[in-house]
Amino acid sequence: MRTPLWKKVLATMVLGLAITGLAAGPALAADTTTTFTLTGAGLGVNVPASANISSSTNIGITSLSSQLGAVQVADYRGSLAASWTATVATTTFTTGGAGTHETIPKANVSYASGLATATVGLGVDFPTAAPVALGTPQQAFAHTGVIGSQSTTWNPTITISVPVDAVAGSYTGTITHSVA
Question: In the chain, N or C terminus with fewer CB closer than 10 Å?
């Protein structure tokens, strides 16, 4: 028995509608453009609040040396390609009335950054290669190739050449780190 033509046409139409219904996308669609903003927070430097180079050194010693403690520069400027340079300076070290024999000049203080003890982020570190005298401010550490945020930590060694005519006493000075 033969299938009538009208049944074949009807079956083809129903099949065509079913396939078209399956392939069709959503009836309604809309897009939302979504944004957010990252704000750079700048450069910062963190240093120990205080350090004790030596708790007791005998008169006649020519130099003393110790690590200062962790110094960290954090770069949160959010730049694509940035760099920073940390600078170190010192005051004279004095005791008593800060007279001639109660003062250790800035030039008698030297600084060596050593290698980074910790880094986060991208870029290249440039530590101070050899001890530098702090008679004038000196480069302590540098970093280049910052992308986004980055931080570097180091533990510098401070060496003080003690003048032969220095008197006994507790000497105090200030070592300052800055970054730009």
Answer: N
Q: How far apart are CA 178 and CA 180, in angstroms?
A: 7
Q: How far apart are CA 150 and CA 121, in angstroms?
A: 4
The per-residue DSSP string of 32-85 comes to: ----------EEEEE--S---S-S---TT--EEEEE---EEEEEEEEEEEEEEE
Residues 114, 129: contact at Cβ < 8 Å? no
DSSP helix/strand/coil, 18: helix
Q: Which strands make up the sheet holding 132-133, listed edge to edge?
A: 63-67, 157-161, 109-112, 132-133
Q: Are 137 and 88 in contact (CB under 8 A)?
A: yes
pLDDT along the chain (180 residues), means of 10: 63 57 70 86 94 82 93 94 96 94 97 97 93 98 94 97 93 97
| Domain extents in the chain | 42-51+59-179
Find the Cα–Cα–Cα–Cα dihedral 143, 146, 148, 153, rounded to 10°: -20
Residue 73 burial (C-beta neighbours within 10 Å; 0-12, 13-18, 19+): buried
Give me the numbers of helices (H) and strands (E) for the chain, helices first please.
1, 12
Topology adopted by domain 42-51+59-179: Immunoglobulin-like (2.60.40)
